[in-house]
Amino acid sequence: MATKSLKKLGNDLAQSNKQIEILSNGIFKTGELPTFKDKISETSQFPIKAKKLEILQINVGYMCNQVCDHCHVDAGPDRKEIMTRDTMRQCLEVIKNSGAHTLDLTGGAPEMNPDFRWFVEEAAKVGITDFIVRSNLTIIRANKKYYDLPEFFKKHNVHVVSSMPHWTRGKTDKQRGDGVFDKSIKALQELNAVGYGMPGSDLKLDLVYNPSGAFLPGDQVAMEKDFKKALMDDFGIEFHNLFAITNLPIARFLDYLIASENYEDYMYSLVEAYNPAAVENVMCTNTLSISWDGYLFDCDFNQMLELPVNSKSRHISEFNEELLEGRNIVISQHCYGCTAGAGSSCQGVVA
Amino acid sequence: MSKPYYDAADLRKFGKITEWSEELGTKFFDYYGKVFEEGALTAREKSLIALAVAHTEQCPYCIDAYTKDTLQRGITKEQMMEAIHVGAAIKSGATLVHGVQMMNKVNKLDG
User: Fold this and answer.
1) Residue numbers in B near A226 (CB within 8 A)
2) Chain B residues with beta carbon closer than 8 angstroms to that of A166
3) Which residue ranges does the record assign to the Carboxymuconolactone decarboxylase-like domain (chain B) (predicted)?
4) Which domain holds residue B96?
5) Is the pLDDT reported for residue B1 higher than 60?
6) What CATH number does the domain containing B76 carry?
């Protein structure tokens, strides 16, 4: 189990250009597999264009209390990139003036940003009603200062979306670290106790499933049924929806695929499962990702690959919704991850 | 020098069997796809049956395919191994139940 980020370890794959190089060469360079651009061109879906902005996904920092095997952010306790209050103020200006109706906070563990609560309170003041926090659950149990997070989330009617790779301890801890399962269960019970995830409750609690290895997620509906039954039978836990998300071949997951000699097979699986219908609704068409230092990206994955938006408006300080709408989405082979099978997004399947 | 009889990458080419006999190949794949759809049995139950049968048939391609398929469905390794034991139990039972035939023959010849 990893305890340090690739960046801290000085691993080549901590460099985004090295990742792009791997994704562009090999089986895609030789033509053994079609590039993503060629594939979507077959169905006349190139270029993918941004539609109206609906969701602002803000990455408030790469620091995390966990070091998960699959993490596309390469997050961990040793990452120091943290969004400042000044950048948050700029985000708030944009929220006030843009048509986006959903604010989606992610990280790292977003709660570890010292201005996290301030940001949530200020965003609530400017009228954001659909407010997502991507919480890893264990943060709630990590330190006394986080124990009241369920109450804080409830106060601001935050929609909590949490990772939970499996309903068994073994598979969860293998991916996310020893002890993660037990802490996650405790955190879910505490969220249930304040009303989160209960049938009919407005306090939304959704779980994210992503596979623990080099395989694609199964059917989201069937997985949700299995998760609900197991978590209820074993721990009396309720939640609303399960989002099945495909692991994209970047950062730590790419490192794992290469080290375990699964990279080519995995890319084959993604390409074979390519679904043109999923391309229609990929999340980059209605979402904008903002990095800890205020730069704009088509999605959180492009942010990690340092592929900036294809627009003159590249930083939150020069945000221009008109310029951004209709822009061509920046793509590479990792995009196959969002178009496999029923598709994949931060909100689960898309087709 | 020696090439193995089985190459894992050949599984990806399975679909090509239709190229030399299109009608039969297509009918087979249609049938195959239909069999594994959710029906009176769940797709998950069918996947576990397939995994067990893949082992009794000792088909390396099928083992690769259904190991991955069961993993994708969230099936645990303990469940996978138990499924294989079901197949193994039937295989060994099928061997041993013929022991009765042997016993009958012994009793007839040398009883």
Assistant:
1) 44, 74
2) 74
3) 23-101
4) 22-110
5) no
6) 1.20.1290.10
Q: How many Å lie between the alpha carbon of A337 and the closest alpha carbon of chain B? A: 15
**What letters, b where the CB count within 10 A reaches 16 and e where it falls short, cover B71-100?**
bbbbbeeeebeebbebbeeeeeeeeeeeee
**DSSP 8-state class, residue A78:** T
Q: Mean pLDDT, chain B, as a whole number?
A: 95
Q: Which residues pair with A287 in a beta bridge?
A: A55
Inter-chain CB proximity A166 and B12 less than 8 Å: no
What CATH number belongs to A6-338? Answer: 3.20.20
**What pLDDT is recorded for position A127?**
78
ipTM value, please give it: 0.81
The interface residues of chain B toward chain A in range 26-85, judged by CB-CB distance below 8 A, are 42-44, 68, 71-74, 76
Mutate to test the interface with B, among A164, A169, A215 (most CBs of B within 10 A): A215
pLDDT tens digits, one per residue of A315-344: 999 999 999 999 999 999 999 999 999 999
| More confident site: A97 or B104 | B104
Pairs across A and B, CB distance < 8 A? 30
Q: What is the pLDDT of residues B4-46, one digit of tens each?
A: 889 998 999 999 999 999 999 999 999 999 999 999 999 999 9
pLDDT in tens, A57-71: 999 999 999 999 889
A117: its two tokens: 């609560």
Q: Which residues of B touch A168 (CB under 8 A)?
A: 76
Q: Which of A265, A272, A344 to mutate to test the interface with B (most CBs of B within 10 A)?
A: A265
Residue A265, pLDDT > 60, answer yes
Query: Is B13 in CB contact (< 8 Å) with chain A?
Result: no
- The whole-angstrom distance between B74's CA and the closest CA on chain A is 7
Quote the pLDDT of residue A157: 94
**What pLDDT shows up at residue A165?**
85
Asked, for residue B35, whether it belongs to a domain, the answer is: yes
Q: Domain total for chain B?
A: 1
